Amino acid sequence: MNFHKAVWAAAIVAGSMSISIGAHAQIAGTQPLGVTVEQSQALLEGWSVKKSALGKAVYNDNNQKIGTIRDLVVAPDGSLSAAIVSAGGFIGVATHDVAVPIGALQVRDGNFFLPGATKEAIHATPEFQYSKIHTPPKPKKVDAQ
To answer: Which Pfam families does this chain map to (predicted)?
Structure first.
């Protein structure tokens, strides 16, 4: 399974888990999620982004570690658009985060590669800045009765 499909499947799992809070069981044919048979199969064959991608090293063609996957960016249309690769720093201090198009990353033998990249090229790339999108307010706690 290629990287794009696996990450998309993991995103579907994460989204469906947040939608189904409070549900006790999923019963075939009764889910309002609109998940197709193909998507359901992809979920069964997929893998966890949290366990398999976030925090994992990114290597170049010379097997040199050039950074770590810190985040994944989902575009407004729902597609996975970029991986945020963090280079340098120690324990998250003084890191340099750059957005790498998902299509540029390769997965080989379970490891992530960015062909042609170097630490110097990562540091020369302008640092990624998250957009200033207004987030919805945090939900208030509901007292259990």
So the answer is: PRC
